[in-house]
Amino acid sequence: MSILITDGLHVGYRHNKKQVTLLGPLNLRLSAGRLAVLIGQNGAGKSTLIRTLTCALPPVAGRVLVAGENVREQSQRERSRLIALVSTERIQAGGLTVTELVSLGRQPHTDFLGRLSDEDHQIVMEAMSDVGIMHKAESYVASLSDGERQKAMIARALAQQTPIIILDEPTAFLDVASRIETMQLLAKLAHEGGKAVLLSTHDLAQSLRQADDLWLITRDREVVTGATADVIHTAAMNDLFTTPHIAFNPTILDYQWRD
Amino acid sequence: MRRYGIIMTSLLVALLLLAVACLLFGSVAIPATDVLDILLGRSSANRAWEIIVLHSRLPMIVTAALAGAALAVSGLLLQTTFNNPLAGPSILGVSTGAGLGVAIVMLAMGGTLGGFLGDSLGSYLATLVGALLGAGVVLAILIVMAQWVRSSTMLLIVGVLVSYLASSVISLLNSVASEEGVHNYVAWGFGNFSGVSSEQMPLFAALILVALAASTLMVKPLNALLLGTRYAENLGVNTHRVRQLLLVITGVLTAVVTAYCGPIGFLGLVVPHIARLSLATANHSRLLPATMLAGADVALLCALLSVNGPHGVIPLNAITPVIGVPIILYVIINRKKIQYFN
Fold first, then answer.
1. Contacts of A195 (CB under 8 A, 6+ apart)
2. pTM of model > 0.90
3. Are B248 and B210 in contact (CB under 8 A)?
4. Contact A85 B231 (CB under 8 A)
5. B310: cis peptide before it, omega within 30°?
6. Contact across the interface for A96 and B226, Cβ inside 8 Å
């Protein structure tokens, strides 16, 4: 079932009062219980697409529909119960404990003063235990490693209890072990938690192994989508980079130099 | 939570002790038994002592406590709003803006630049409005500049520049004001918690208490803002509206204090750090109440030192940097170790 659909969506940005369209028209579908990975070279428009899907940017044209409703017509609070975001943005939350940080994920559900009910506390605990950060519950966010911090941010997104989780390069600053662990965790959240998970990444090797679906932005700004097993056998895999001599090798699921 | 209890209790006890000290010690020596008699409404041997205790020391204590809490909260809100731990109402020029507003109103009303809060209710309200407008204009400039100037250090420099500009306009106004006006203005610039009379107290206290109460309703979005604009919006916070509300509260707190007490430096910048360091948290649900109490404490301490100088009153603005600068330097030097910076 597709929880997020784009309908003739064009994404882009305003530059010097001119509208620049990067991608479109896009008719994308994000489904519950599946992990979709967005790949493309730098500047292809990954972040712009993610920003448009999460309503941080207005679409140039077309619509983003979540559960059948246009997200631009929803209030910030309504959206906050549908899509949870994890980005690489610097946060100033070093002085919060992990529990306090994850509790912020309950904000869309709590009252005006942000008081947590017993149920809220329960959900926060479950989120921390699901991502495996429980042992750091009382540690300051400042004391976490990059990998742990990203786990805490994912737990915060989980505590938000949204059907959709969108992550903008969640593995960007992580070492290999943390990257594999994070991808594994996100796949689990999709498959066992029934979430629709979309993430953008440069880590092709890991994403091709873990992703159920691929959203591939080619060098010509075409977006090719489909089940990973299908997409990796298409020619589109070789249209990812502008750089010549870089070719996809399906046997090793990675790119290599070819003369 | 235990740490929170201990810190809050200590801050409350300190508040009481400082208030008592301010009642007992001042430029005129009054025996403690007489102070107690006067407070309990018993007639005192000395009529002058009665006036000093009831109409000078008592209003000064209330003024200092409220002004300290107001400036400290104003600093905390600015620090979170601009995601900049070194922001504060004086360093960002909000206090100077309020001062300029007052100066312009006084001049437009044909009066001298001095006597910042006139006797009649009209001039008294006009100066307040002037302070609010002045603070508002500076905050508006900061909001606009924050869109262009992404670096928080650069925004601080913008604040300092705006402050210089406002000061220079004030100097130009001074050059056309009467000698007495200039003298009054300079005196006002020293900072003073003794300027709120018993008659002016209700309005002063009401404005500050309402703004402080409003700030406590902002704890939830303040915490979300710790994660930055994008995350806060994803948590359902309308960051645009919240930032506006926060700046209105900041403007009111700073403008009211500045109009009545002069531009008091450092309190707003330093006290939130004292609260964060002692509580070891960035969580506003605990940080905000502690900042209020610590602000009242520090202001009372400054007031106590101010009125007990060896040769009479020491200007407040000569005391606040002595307390503030070492703390800020400590924070800057240790920022890699202090958890809320990381």
1. A32, A33, A162, A163, A164, A165, A189
2. yes
3. no
4. yes
5. no
6. yes
Task: Identify the closest residue of chain A to B79 by CA–CA distance.
Answer: A92
Domains of chain B: 2-337 (1.10.3470.10)
Q: How far is CA B47 from CA A12, B28, B54, in A?
A: 77, 13, 11
Contact B112, B178 (CB under 8 A): yes
Contact call for A160 and B282, based on CB within 8 A = no
Chain A residues whose beta carbon lies within 8 Å of the beta carbon of residue B235: 80, 104-105, 107-108, 160
Give, as one character, the DSSP assignment of residue A163.
S
Dist CA B256 CA B128 (whole Å): 7
Task: Give the pLDDT confidence of B58-114 residue by residue, as tens digits.
Answer: 999 999 999 999 999 999 999 999 888 899 998 899 999 998 998 887 776 655 444
Looking at beta carbons, which residues of chain A come within 8 Å of B276?
A: 95
Instruction: Show the DSSP H helices in chain A as ranges.
Output: 46-53, 76-80, 98-103, 118-131, 146-159, 176-191, 204-210, 228-231
State both tokens at A257.
Answer: 């130099």
Token pair listed for B17 = 């002790």
> For the segment A8-65, what is each residue's pLDDT rounded down to a tens digit?
999 998 887 888 899 989 999 999 999 999 999 888 899 999 999 999 899 999 999 9
Please tell me which residue, B255 or B189, carries the higher pLDDT value.
B255
Q: Do B281 and A93 touch (CB under 8 A)?
A: no
Distance CA B49, CA A116 (A): 52
